[in-house]
Structures are given as C-alpha cells and as structure tokens.
Design brief:
single chain, 447 residues, alpha/beta, Rossmann fold, 5-stranded mixed beta sheet, binds (2Z)-2-iminopentanedioic acid
Length: 447
C-alpha cells in the first residue's frame, strides 16, 4: 500500500502535460495524505482523488481592450472552479504575464485545502489573466478589468464563486471589477472580496494575510518553546503580504532585517520598522526598482543587487514573494546559516525538494496553505459582512483572525500527531484540510 498516491500523481501528469506547477502541488498534497487514504479505503472507492485533481469547471476567454495609444490588445482570461464541496468557489484573481493554466490550477488546488483549514464554508477556485499591470495607466487597468468581467460575470455570484485579489490585483482592480459586475447584473452583493473599505470591503482585509502569517509563526515558535519577540526575521517580497507581515512583526516585537524586490535585496540591521515599512508600501506601486530607492532614502541599509536574501543569517525566514522562490540551493544556504524556522507567506514559495531538505535538517516548515490562510479567512468574513448588510469594525476582524490562525495551527499540529508524523506541519495541514473536504464530499454522492 506504500504507494497509493503514485497512481493519482501519474494520472495528473498524463492529463495535465506542460503544467509542472500543478503537478508539483498535487505531488506534495497527495504524498502527505497517503496515511489518510490507507485508513479510508472508502475514499479510494468513491474516486475522491480522481475527482479532486480535476477542477469542477474551468473557463478560458478572450479579453480584448484598447490601450491609451488606441491599439487593440488581446489577453487571455481564466477561472478554474476547483471544488464546491464546502461552499461557493473562493480564491483570488492573478494578473501577471506568466499566468497560464498550470499556475492557476496549482493555486486553485491549494486553495481547496487552505480554505478547508479555515473552518469556514468556502470551496476553492482561482482565476486570472496574462495581463501585466506594470506600467499600465489607471485608465488602461480599468478598461482591462471591465473587459475581463464582461466575460467572467456570468460564471460568478455570491453563492456561486467569489473572487478576490492575488498578485497584480489589489483594491483598485477589485473596485473596477465589482463596478462592472454591478453594472452588468444590477446587483450590489458579496461577489467580490478584497474591496476597499469605502466600497463595501472589510476593515483589516488588506493586512489580514500578513498579520495571519505572523500569528501563525508565533504559534509555531510557542509550540517549540520559543518566543517571537526579539527574533530576527528575513522576508522576501515587498507586496501586500510582505507589508502586512512587516507591520505585525514590529507590533509583536520581532526584528525584520531584510526584504527583497525584483532588483535584489535590502539588509537593514537597524530594523525595518515604522516609516521604513510605510516606504516599502509606497514603493509597491512603482514596479521594478524597490531596493535601490530604499537604500538611497535610508543610508544605513545595504542594497545587494541581483541576489535573493536567503544567505542572510536570521532566526526566522518568511518568503512572501511568489512560487518557487526557495530551491534546493537556497535551502542548503538556509540550513548552513542555522535556520530553524521557515514560514511560507507566498503560495508554494518552496520547491518540494527544498522542503524535504529543510525538514531532513531539522527545520520546522510552516506551509502556506496554513500560514497564509488569514487572507482568505477574512475574505469569508467580508462575504458574511456583505450578506448581513452591516459594516464590521477592525477590532472584531483582528480578534477573529487571530482566533482562526491559532485554530489552524492547532488543527495541523493535531493531524500530524494523530498519524504519528511528529511535528510535521506540511503533512498536518494537508491532512487536516483534506479530511474536511473528503468528509463533505462523502455526504454529497458522486458529483
Ligand atoms: O492565495 C490566497 O489565498 C488569496 N489570494 C486570497 C484569496 C481570497 O479569496 O481572499
């Protein structure tokens, strides 16, 4: 029985050629839920895995728009509705030039288990486009968003599919998309989350992902008999997730000493706090050069061009940039530096090989689908707020977020313990998320 999952991994490979990111996450999830499959032959009989690795639905569509110079541009839009076992499809929209089905399917598949871990009633999906928002004018972004939604609107709805943001999609883009959705459907409903607070959004949603990551990191450290306060931290990225993480690290007394951008990384041993974090946020909208202007403004910081920050010695590492940021060679660097804790902020920032190497060398890895679930959890709170026709206050949101993150950590820690896997949160998160989805699927028949 040792290789129960291999058959499904082979099936996923055969059916999804040329989509390595999707195969990577299928392999990671299925390998770690092997003991659950062994304990539940009824799941195998019910074809649960064959069904989970096949999205319930995927749409691909043309997105034509006119740029400021009057030229017609055509992009491709997608939405993969992966699983509605636990609720309406829920997950972000990514705009980036490298978007193609392999990336959206990896994100959509991960989203199923992440959303399940939150304990909230949301299924999993993901969408996006190969549109590159960098360097586009505000009017171009608006026209693109309107055209994207003119096709997508027929596939979504407050009880059907509720998109949010992801890379390249923030409050502005969500605002334009919900505006067009409202115009086409005549409904002001909870179909979009991650809206601005002036516009029906949830107070605290913007920082929720980063705050949740730090709460999760605190729980991991506590479990290992350590404290977050006073720890030195290295992150990668400079976007929304990195910013929220930096803010909460400061509030909880940890010391952020490095972050990265497309141009290299910043090492600032005096600590990245206060106005420096605010400046990181300001740089976010500026595109490519993030670290160079930071080092110019704060001369105590060192700018290391063209490098990743994984060679910097610290107590805790939190990759917040994008997928496959930490490969085997970086994992080796981290272990050589004495790394003990790595908490994934971005989705799938660590390759499977790198995770294996880190864990084999005693590093505790906090997987993204647990650590960054605070974002989507608050999206579900936004759905609840919109459905209630009320406005929640920030304090309530923060308190709920903290409780959700503590529970997610507990669920993942309990699941790996139940299967005698030690404190393996990668396996624990996959198992706990999968169990909830599997139990719901078993109630619903073969659909
Ligand atoms: O990866 C993620 O969890 C997100 N981009 C947020 C999804 C959501 O629906 O809030």
């Amino acid at each position: 029985m040792a290789n129960l999952s291999q058959k499904y991994i082979d099936l996923a490979k055969a059916k999804n050629p040329g989509e390595p990111e999707f195969i990577q996450t299928v392999e990671e999830v299925l390998t770690s839920i092997e003991p659950v499959l062994e304990a539940h032959p009824e799941y195998i009989k019910a074809g649960l895995i064959e069904r989970l690795i096949e999205p319930e639905r995927g749409v691909s569509f043309r997105v034509p728009w006119v740029d400021d110079a009057g030229n017609v541009q055509v992009n491709r839009g997608y939405r993969f509705q992966f699983s509605s076992a636990l609720g309406p499809y829920k997950g972000g929209i990514r705009f980036a030039p490298n978007v193609y089905p392999g990336i959206l399917k990896f994100l959509g598949f991960e989203q199923i288990f992440k959303n399940a871990l939150t304990g909230l009633p949301i299924g999993g999906g993901k969408g996006g486009s190969d549109f590159d928002p960098n360097g586009k004018s505000d009017a171009e972004v608006m026209r693109f968003c309107q055209s994207f939604v003119t096709e997508l609107y027929r596939h979504i709805g407050p009880n059907v599919d509720v998109p949010a943001g992801d890379l390249g999609v923030g409050g502005r883009e969500i605002g334009y998309m919900m505006g067009q959705y409202k115009r086409l459907t005549g409904q002001f409903d909870g179909t979009w989350t991650g809206k601005g607070t002036k516009n029906g959004g949830l107070a605290g949603r913007t920082e929720a992902t980063g705050y949740g990551i730090v709460f999760f990191a605190r729980e991991v450290l506590k479990h290992c008999g350590e404290e977050l306060a006073g720890k030195t931290v290295v992150i990668s990225g400079f976007g929304n997730v990195a910013w929220g993480t930096a803010c909460k690290l400061e509030q909880l007394g940890a010391k952020l000493i490095a972050f990265s951008g497309p141009d290299g990384y910043i090492l600032d041993e005096t600590g990245i706090t206060g106005e420096k974090v605010a400046y990181m946020l300001e740089l976010r909208g500026s595109g490519k050069n993030i670290c160079a202007p930071y080092a110019e403004k704060f001369p105590e910081a060192k700018f290391i061009p063209g490098e990743k920050p994984w060679g910097v010695k610290a107590d805790l590492y939190i990759p917040c940039a994008m997928q496959n940021d930490i490969r085997l060679e970086h994992a080796k660097q981290l272990v050589a530096n004495g790394c003990k804790f790595l908490i994934e902020g971005a989705n799938m920032p660590t390759t499977n090989e790198a995770i294996e190497y880190l864990q084999a060398n005693g590093v505790v890895v906090g997987p993204a689908k647990a650590a960054n679930a605070g974002g989507v959890a608050c999206s579900c709170l936004e759905m609840a707020q919109n459905a209630e026709h009320l406005i929640w206050n920030e304090e309530d949101v923060y308190a709920q977020l903290e409780g959700i993150m503590v529970r997610i950590h507990q669920l993942a820690a309990d699941a790996c313990e139940r299967y005698n896997l030690g404190y393996n949160l990668v396996a624990g998160a996959n198992i706990a998320g999968f169990e909830r989805v599997a139990e719901a699927m078993m109630c619903q028949g073969i659909v």
